[in-house]
Amino acid sequence: MNPGHLFALTPEQKERYKVQPDQFHPTDRPSSLEEYEVPDFIEKAGLRLWYNTQSDSYRRHWHDAQEIVVPLEGNYSVSVQGTNYLLKPGDFFLIPPGELHELSEPSPGARFVFLMDLEPFCHQTGFLQVRSLLSQPVLISFASCPEIYEKIITLFMQIVLLYWGSSPSWHLLICARMLEIFACYADYRIAGAAPRMEMPRENSGLGKKFDRLLEYLQKNYTKDLSLDEAAQRVGVSKYYFTRVFRSRMGQTFSEYLTYLRIRSAEELLKNGGVSVADVCTACGYDSVSSFNRNFRKLKGYSPTEFRKLYQATRLL
């Protein structure tokens, strides 16, 4: 099967999509390595979708938005934290918020680039699990994920139609499609991670205990909670908990705890009035060296470098 018909555009659409619905025109930004970028969202919407046909490359940069890249014509090169991905037409690629990445076009073509703020979704039931699965780059292609590809790309193309459409409820409808995309991918990952293992359902006693643990971690990630204690909270053995946690969250318990701490540290570091040592303590670390090591491992640069990059851009 050739999936090209799922994302093909008419000549009329190609012309219409070159103009933003709010008539926004991007301003030139100074080029610098590792630049912090403030997304040009539509006012009060927390999102922006580009139909991009430019042959320019985008140097290493980062922002707080989830970025989705969907090539339409020609291949597209994306590098995230030093790992290179060659995207083909129709590929659906998600870049996590806060990750250093760069985009380049090896040959002339066209693609959609979608930026979206995930924070409004964070209070949705079950989104903690989804956000964990999205903490690493995600490539959904016809070859790699045939079970969900058609649904994912169809939902995304519906987002495109809504973005350039005339519905008064366009923003709500786009958010609904994105939640459906996230849910589809989460279900796929959970089912595929351990197909022969009985997984706790959302309405089961075990599933509810697991969800309560995630809520507890969101509020208490600074505490020194061990794997044994976490398993006891759910009421299962450490071995079973380890398997369930990794299959549901896409990472180990320790990795998830580190992810929560570093995500919190990012927000604190944007405040110039808080020292790196204080951020370290506030995020649950006893050692600055351990904090620096984990921060660099996840983000690709030190806490001090992160702060300088952010503050330098805010002064522009």
From TrEMBL:
<dbReference type="InterPro" id="IPR003313">
    <property type="entry name" value="AraC-bd"/>
</dbReference>
<protein>
    <submittedName>
        <fullName>AraC family transcriptional regulator</fullName>
    </submittedName>
</protein>
<feature type="domain" description="HTH araC/xylS-type">
    <location>
        <begin position="211"/>
        <end position="309"/>
    </location>
</feature>
<dbReference type="InterPro" id="IPR018062">
    <property type="entry name" value="HTH_AraC-typ_CS"/>
</dbReference>
<dbReference type="GO" id="GO:0003700">
    <property type="term" value="F:DNA-binding transcription factor activity"/>
</dbReference>
<dbReference type="GO" id="GO:0043565">
    <property type="term" value="F:sequence-specific DNA binding"/>
</dbReference>
<keyword id="KW-0804">Transcription</keyword>
<keyword id="KW-0238">DNA-binding</keyword>
<dbReference type="Pfam" id="PF12833">
    <property type="entry name" value="HTH_18"/>
</dbReference>
<dbReference type="InterPro" id="IPR014710">
    <property type="entry name" value="RmlC-like_jellyroll"/>
</dbReference>
<dbReference type="InterPro" id="IPR020449">
    <property type="entry name" value="Tscrpt_reg_AraC-type_HTH"/>
</dbReference>
<keyword id="KW-0805">Transcription regulation</keyword>
<dbReference type="InterPro" id="IPR018060">
    <property type="entry name" value="HTH_AraC"/>
</dbReference>
<dbReference type="InterPro" id="IPR009057">
    <property type="entry name" value="Homeodomain-like_sf"/>
</dbReference>
<dbReference type="InterPro" id="IPR037923">
    <property type="entry name" value="HTH-like"/>
</dbReference>
<dbReference type="Pfam" id="PF02311">
    <property type="entry name" value="AraC_binding"/>
</dbReference>
